[in-house]
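Researcher: I'd like a candidate sequence for this fold, 326 residues long. If you have to choose between options at a position, lean toward the conservative one.
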């Protein structure tokens, strides 16, 4: 039986691509068809290709309806979060329901692994933006980077991306996640380009490791190298730049659930938390300190930056507190 207390909507969180992105989380934590070495959520705990009815649709829509009553609308409502969203067999129905509820554009962040499936392609047709991934030009590198479910075939995935692009009338941005000494060599990039030339996305977005990854050997590519790769891939390619922090002076009540909901999806800096929740950075410090004292959040460091993530012993839903209590 589904846990009706689970939070399916989180944020808005700061996104380097989508601005203020209101997340919609439609699969259980780390349910995915890949076990990517760079994943900021850690190792996949349920590696599967099976689509299922994972969550109560009514609960998600109720939470979304309440969240959208806020003063500042998000830039996107984004299917992302705890795993691969296209594994949810109801995603097409959910997209249609959200479009009826709100004028906010709907985006789907997907690893693209199931787009060979005609039903999955049809389910995503109602989205305004679809952002799939292609992190390899060859099957060998694909297996090394994405560590896919054994039933997945690289060539079939690439064909599915091209089939989707031909039928889809919305915007399609293709993400290429670059890793030092793994898929950033020129020979592999040129293989990726061959596939891109067939897929023909509207944009090619180059990304690399920023937050702590699932594996220590998943290392970032230097900015100058990413620029060289951008030039190789052509005019549609762009480097994803850090999100510009837009801090507000929001004075409303902030609950620990909101901070925890962000950190359960990915490690965040204090500025990520502040901009995502619409609070001053000093207020974010107070909330994080409170959670650290309760041993539900801990600090980690990556490339000289401080991130916060939930501890293994953290409860699923901490008790709410207000700014007056910290």
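Model: Candidate sequence:
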């Amino acid at each position: 039986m589904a846990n009706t207390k689970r939070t399916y909507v989180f944020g808005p969180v700061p996104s380097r691509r989508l601005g203020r992105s209101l997340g919609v989380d439609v699969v259980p934590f780390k349910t995915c068809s890949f076990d990517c070495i760079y994943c900021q959520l850690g190792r996949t705990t349920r590696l599967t290709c099976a689509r299922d009815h994972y969550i109560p649709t009514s609960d998600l829509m109720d939470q979304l309806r309440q969240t959208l009553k806020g003063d500042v609308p998000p830039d996107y409502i984004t299917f992302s979060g705890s795993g691969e969203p296209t594994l949810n067999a109801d995603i097409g129905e959910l997209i249609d329901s959200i479009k009826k509820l709100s004028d906010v554009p709907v985006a789907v962040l997907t690893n693209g692994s199931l787009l060979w499936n005609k039903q999955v392609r049809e389910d995503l047709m109602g989205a305004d933006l679809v952002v799939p991934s292609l992190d390899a030009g060859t099957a060998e590198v694909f297996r090394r980077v994405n560590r896919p479910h054994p039933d997945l075939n690289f060539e079939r995935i690439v064909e599915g991306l091209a089939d989707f692009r031909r039928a889809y009338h919305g915007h399609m941005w293709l993400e290429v996640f670059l890793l030092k000494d793994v898929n950033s060599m020129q020979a592999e990039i040129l293989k990726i380009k061959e596939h891109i030339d067939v897929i023909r996305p509207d944009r090619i977005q180059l990304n690399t490791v920023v937050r702590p990854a699932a594996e220590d050997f998943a290392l970032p590519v230097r900015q100058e190298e990413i620029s060289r790769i951008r030039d190789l891939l052509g005019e549609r390619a762009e480097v994803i730049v850090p999100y510009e922090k837009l801090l507000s002076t929001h004075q409303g009540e902030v609950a620990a659930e909101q901070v925890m909901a962000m950190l359960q999806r990915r490690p965040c800096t204090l500025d990520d938390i502040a901009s995502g929740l619409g609070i001053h950075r000093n207020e974010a410090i107070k909330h994080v300190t409170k959670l650290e004292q309760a041993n539900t959040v801990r600090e980690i460091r990556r490339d000289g930056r401080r991130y916060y993530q939930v501890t293994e012993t953290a409860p699923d839903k901490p008790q709410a507190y207000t700014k007056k209590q910290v």
